[in-house]
Design brief:
By secondary structure, the chain is mostly helical. It is built from 2 helices and no strands.
């Protein structure tokens, strides 16, 4: 899985290194807390189920 986390940098601020680190840590925590959940693909039906569905659809009413 690729690393999708952005590289955060603080530019043009008059903050001390400790303050800048605290701001970056707060933003990273916010991003972790608000990221949407990963949606997994629904499981594919087995070939047996697909064959049964196809067979049931192909039949003509008797």
């Amino acid at each position: 899985m690729p690393n999708r986390r952005p590289k955060l940098e603080l530019h043009g601020a008059s903050a001390t290194p400790e303050e800048a680190a605290a701001v970056i840590a707060a933003v990273e925590q916010f991003l972790r807390d608000t990221v949407p959940p990963v949606v997994a693909e629904p499981p594919r039906p087995s070939p047996w189920v697909l064959a049964a569905l196809q067979e049931g659809v192909d039949r003509r009413p008797g």
